[in-house]
């Protein structure tokens, strides 16, 4: 008996090592299995929450006399805590009524969304090289661009168009017939608030906006060496002006999805006769960004329409006065009303918005646009690489 107990006093070192190794393997398997279970559970919860969002949005659209499936675009924005911020400004009040009780529900995995056939779906993203940096872009947007006229017009044409948006505003608001000038619109509190929102800054006055833009210019100037103070100040003046112009473009881009909800109706009502004045009125209203976006979308759609002409030159922007006085053209109205049933206008609108959102929706690209404008070689190279993929 004594001999038996002595032999069984404990494990040998080898036996302990084997047991520890086995426990480690089991723990690893358990951790992987548990994390996989958590991920599946979070995905299932997100899918259920997204279904709730879609149901509430469909009800909100019906209340407004619209079928969600008839919309070209809609926007689902999240707060920092991944709860729903708003769903398409035009239907947001009604949406919140039908979404009541779910305000504190947060998405755990889903971050980016794409509007497809009347429903929000999780966006599919891919990694692209941009100026030596890897960035994620939506494949849904990229496919929409390729299926539209912008797939034929190409990167250069799209960037030329976007670069022209600030000039479009200048052309519309010329101070005649009691209208303010474009410069007066930019100096308004409404524009300042819209611009500061795009820049991610707080403020309510044009002075707040100027201070923000000056700080951005100062930060950029600090990257360079200047011969003297005068050279630096000249650089700051030129850069500040450019950033303000590009902010106008980004304000338009940020508001494009909301503007798209009404722009086709505006352009086709009364045969297009009232469109130009409608855009002017929107620019000097409570949300000048939406007015800018409406006019830029109209300009974009006319560009897409004209791109079918064999003499069209994608590298040269169309004359503003020509576009703004072309809404009553029979051929353009047929295109806007989809008389041939091809759905081309919807594809071109979706493609335009996809291009705008691809750039303005990515913080790296958006910041480069503010400093350098849309006609910036790395951005054009990126879009060309996308189109060739």
Q: How are the SSEs ordered, and which strands pair?
A:
Layout: H1 2-7, H2 13-63, E1 76-78, E2 84-87, H3 92-98, E3 113-116, E4 119-122, E5 125-130, E6 133-138, H4 139-146, H5 150-163, H6 165-172, H7 182-186, H8 189-199, H9 206-221, H10 229-254, H11 256-268, H12 275-283, H13 288-306, H14 320-324, H15 330-336, H16 344-360, H17 363-372, H18 377-388
Antiparallel strand pairs: 1-2, 3-4, 5-6
Structure description:
- With 389 residues, this protein is mainly alpha-helical.
- It has two domains: 13-121, no CATH class; 140-388, no CATH class.
- Helices cover 63% and strands 7% of the residues.
- Strand 5 (125-130) and strand 6 form a beta hairpin.
Keywords:
389 residues; mainly alpha; two-stranded antiparallel sheet
Supply Rg.
27 Å
Largest pleated sheet: 2 strands, antiparallel
Q: How many domains, in number, for the residues? A: 2
Tally of alpha and pi helices: 18
Structural class: mainly alpha
**Span of the ends, CA to CA:** 79 Å
Can you tell me the overall shape?
Answer: globular
Q: Largest sheet, order of strands side by side?
A: 1-2
**Strand elements, count:** 6
Helicity range: 55-70%
Topology pattern, helix = H, strand = E? HHEEHEEEEHHHHHHHHHHHHHHH
- The average pLDDT value, as a whole number, equals 83
The proportion of residues in beta strands is 5-15%
- Which segments are poorly predicted (pLDDT under 50) over 5 or more consecutive residues? none
């Amino acid at each position: 008996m004594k001999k038996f107990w002595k032999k069984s006093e404990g494990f040998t070192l080898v036996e302990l090592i084997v047991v520890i190794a086995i426990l480690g393997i089991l723990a690893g398997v358990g951790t992987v299995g548990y994390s996989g279970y958590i991920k599946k559970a979070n995905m299932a919860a997100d899918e259920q929450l997204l279904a709730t969002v879609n149901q509430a949005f469909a009800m909100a659209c019906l209340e407004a006399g619209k079928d969600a499936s008839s919309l070209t675009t809609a926007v689902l924005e999240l707060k920092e805590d991944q709860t729903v911020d708003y769903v398409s400004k035009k239907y947001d009040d009604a949406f919140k009524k039908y979404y009541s009780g779910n305000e504190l529900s947060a998405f755990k995995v889903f971050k980016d969304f794409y509007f497809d056939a009347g429903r929000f779906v999780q966006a599919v993203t891919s990694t692209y090289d941009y100026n030596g940096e890897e960035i994620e872009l939506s494949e849904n947007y990229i496919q929409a661009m390729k299926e539209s006229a912008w797939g034929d017009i190409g990167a250069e044409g799209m960037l030329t168009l976007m670069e022209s948006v600030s000039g479009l505003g200048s052309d519309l608001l010329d101070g005649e017939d009691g209208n303010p000038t474009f410069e007066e619109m930019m100096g308004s509190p409404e524009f300042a608030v819209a611009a500061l929102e795009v820049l991610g800054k707080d403020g309510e006055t044009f002075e707040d906006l100027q201070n923000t833009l000056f700080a951005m210019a100062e930060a950029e100037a600090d990257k360079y060496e200047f011969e003297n103070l005068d050279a630096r100040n000249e650089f700051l003046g030129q850069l500040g002006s450019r950033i303000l112009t590009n902010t106008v473009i980004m304000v338009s881009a940020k508001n494009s999805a909301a503007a798209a909800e009404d722009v086709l109706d505006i352009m086709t009502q009364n045969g297009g006769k009232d469109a130009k004045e409608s855009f002017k009125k929107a620019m000097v209203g409570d949300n000048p960004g939406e007015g800018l976006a409406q006019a830029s979308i109209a300009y974009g759609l006319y560009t897409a329409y004209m791109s079918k002409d064999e003499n069209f030159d994608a590298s040269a922007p169309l004359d503003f006065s020509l576009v703004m006085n072309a809404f009553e053209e029979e051929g353009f109205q047929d295109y806007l009303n989809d008389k041939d049933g091809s759905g081309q206008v919807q594809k071109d609108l979706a493609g335009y918005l996809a291009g705008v959102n691809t750039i303005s929706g990515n913080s790296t690209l958006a910041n480069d646009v503010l400093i350098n404008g849309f006609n910036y070689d790395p951005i054009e190279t990126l879009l060309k690489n996308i189109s060739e993929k």
